[in-house]
Amino acid sequence: MAGAVNAMLPADELLVVHHDDTVSRFTDVTYTLGRHGLRVRTADGRETEFARHEVLTTYVRLAHRARRRDQGLAA
User: Fold this and answer.
1) Which of left, alpha, beta for 19 (phi over 0: left; psi -120 to 50: alpha)?
2) What structural domains does the chain harbor?
3) Phi/psi at 45 (nearest 5 deg)?
4) 13-58: per-residue pLDDT in tens?
């Protein structure tokens, strides 16, 4: 994807819902979502890119935040 490089955000689980209602599921990844689309990098270094017109919505789960919240710690 062309354009500026954005910081990669962490996700314990990332679900990508496509316009045809299929779902791609990734675990333990970093990702960037911008006007050019979505780029996902797995823990083993593999990268997957989706053009902006392919992605309907995304859902992110950050387990470490839930654990910290359950333990009464600040996120």
Assistant:
1) alpha
2) 9-70 (2.30.30.100)
3) 95, -5
4) 999 999 999 999 999 999 999 889 999 999 999 999 999 999 999 9
Residues composing the chain: 75
> Taking the CB of residue 12, how many other CB atoms lie within 10 A of it?
16
Gyration radius from the chain CA atoms: 14
What is this structure's pTM?
Answer: 0.74
